[in-house]
């Protein structure tokens, strides 16, 4: 089958289409013919080698973390899916590879595609939807009437997180550039900070939750926004010792992560704030919850552009510019 692979880590690695073997089907696996995938910043960070310590993939590597497609066949232990079903997923770590014609995904990581979405729209959802869910619902336990600050509201995670937070009954603030202010307001944001003209740290106060997705400066400034007892949840790091324990990382790496996150954890503790790092995980059950919200109209996909299968390198370059509103799609099957 055709797949888009990288042969080495590095910012100069472009990647290329090549022929690889079709995936082997295990007992609890579902083999999917991929119709569409989407590009995430995580793909670029993995290509650049930023996660090679905690995600030591073997090279060459097929990139891609979102899939929407049709079930071709299932393993002997699969009960929820059958040939012909339209499905979508974020495959498990170490089983990624949706920039390809086929992929095998664990049954527990898979959900039926929302009927109202096209394959391309469905492919935009899994990673960002699960990230928003695991930050806001699972970690911060966001409640009706609380205030949440979601950074980078026009991005893939931000655009879904705004809609999810509004569904949960929260008051939502976000940041974006001047040209996207009205767009994120339409998603449901109550307060929009134009980062080209305003500093969120001087504009926002007494928030219950911050979803941090930017750099270290924005991370520390986020502490000023939160009230005591609030939650600062980062998806861009630094990772915590708790994350290292959850991933069962080797003790030297646990020590490294403890050192890297010591500063922000100490500052947060002094202010009575909970700091957490979330590296989203695959979950078919949570994706099913998100599907229900999509079917009800509470969450709508945000697709910026679509690229053909033979233009994945161009799609990665476009996402890397940071100009995309919502998600960028790869059309794998015409």
Automatic annotation (TrEMBL):
Gene3D superfamilies: Medium-chain alcohol dehydrogenases, catalytic domain, NAD(P)-binding Rossmann-like Domain. It holds the Pfam family ADH_N. GO terms for molecular function: oxidoreductase activity. It comes from the Bacteria. Residues 15-330 form the Enoyl reductase (ER) domain. PANTHER family: ALCOHOL DEHYDROGENASE RELATED, RETICULON-4-INTERACTING PROTEIN 1, MITOCHONDRIAL. This is NADPH:quinone reductase. It comes from Thiothrix eikelboomii.
